[in-house]
Amino acid sequence: MANIDSAVFNLITITLKNGFFDVIMPILSDAKLWRIPLVLIMLCFVGFGRQKGMKTVLLCLLAVGLSDLICGNILQPLINRPRPLGGVTPSFPSCHASNLFAAATVIFLIWRKAWVAAVVFGISLLVGYSRIYTTSHYPSDVLAGMVLGVGYAFLVQYIYKLTVKKIERNKRFKGWSPYL
Fold first, then answer.
1. Engineering a disulfide at 98: which of 64, 149, 163, 173 sits with its beta carbon 3.0 to 4.6 angstroms away?
2. Which residues lie below 8 Å from residue 171, measured CB to CB, with a gap of 6+?
C-alpha cells in the first residue's frame, strides 16, 4: 500500500504539476480562505431553505465538529504519521477531507438532488486533491479522511433521526401521565 501511496503522491505532485494548479491548489487548500464563503452559504441555506436549511446547517455543524474533534484531537495524534514534507501536525487522516466530506454528505442526505451532490462532492474532491498537490498529505490520508467524513455524516444523521422520533413519540402523549 505504501508503494501505491508514494506512486500516486509523486504522480500528483511531480508529473501533474503545472502553473495553473500552482496558483489554484494553494487557494483551495487554505481553510482560512473558505470561512467567509462558508458563512454565506450557511446563511443562504437558512434564508432560502427555512426549516430544511436550518436542519442542514445544524447537522453540518455537528458532523464537521465531530469530524474535526476526532480527526485532529484523537486520530492524528494517535497514529502520528508525519506529513510528506514535514510539518507541525500529523498527517493521517486528512481533517480537511474528513470535514468537507462530512458536510457534503449531510447536505446531500438532506437535499437529495444530483446537482447538489455534484457541487458539494466536486468541491470536496478538489480540496482533497489540493491537499495532495500542495504536499500537505499523502493520498491515503485524504482517502481515509473522505471515508471518515462520510461515516460521521451518517452517524449524525442517524442520531438526529432517533432524536426526532423520540420527540415525536413524546408529543403524542403530551399531557399524559402514568400517575393520573
1. 149
2. none
CB neighbour list of residue 123: distance below 8 Å, 6 or more residues apart: 100, 104
pLDDT tens for residues 9-44? 999 999 999 999 999 999 999 988 888 888 898 898
CA distance 172 to 98: 38
CA distance 60 to 156: 9
Q: Angle at the Cα of 119 (from 19 to 122), degrees rounded to 5? A: 45
Torsion of CA 40, 46, 48, 50, to 10 degrees: 180
Q: Which residues of 133-160 are buried (b: 16+ CB within 10 A; e: fewer)?
A: bbbbbbbbbbbbbbebbbbbbeebbeeb
